[in-house]
């Protein structure tokens, strides 16, 4: 994992067992507001969507960067950035893993 950043945590719904990335206030599967204690997530994921941001914007000067929607093996989807990407060879379904949260709290992924 990345430099002493927190691991990826989740919570599961007491009613239906759906897993969510913390924090969650209501289960997106059944609507319950009752959750189990936090659990550690594996961080293993696949890309379900991605886009490349090519123009720098305030607070995000490091363009280009790739934003991905990562589907974790435990179920939930998480928006984050893919590090060290190659535009031409990055496709839907590629296997990635959570690496760390950056200084802004944005999840950073790398190739599995």
TrEMBL record:
SUPFAM superfamilies: Nucleic acid-binding proteins. Pfam families: OB_ChsH2_C. Residues 41-97 form the ChsH2 C-terminal OB-fold domain. InterPro entries: ChsH2_C, NA-bd_OB-fold, Thioester_dehydratase-like. Signal peptide: none annotated. This is ChsH2 C-terminal OB-fold domain-containing protein. It comes from Brevibacillus nitrificans.
């Amino acid at each position: 994992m990345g430099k002493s950043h927190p691991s990826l945590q989740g919570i599961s719904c007491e009613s239906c067992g759906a897993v969510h990335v913390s924090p969650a206030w209501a289960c997106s599967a059944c609507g319950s507001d009752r959750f189990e204690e936090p659990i550690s997530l594996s961080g293993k994921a696949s890309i379900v969507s991605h886009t490349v941001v090519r123009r720098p914007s305030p607070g995000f000067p490091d363009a280009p960067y790739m934003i991905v929607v990562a589907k974790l093996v435990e179920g939930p989807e998480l928006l984050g950035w893919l590090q060290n990407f190659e535009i031409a060879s990055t496709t839907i379904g590629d296997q990635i893993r959570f690496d760390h949260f950056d200084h802004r709290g944005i999840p950073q992924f790398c190739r599995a």
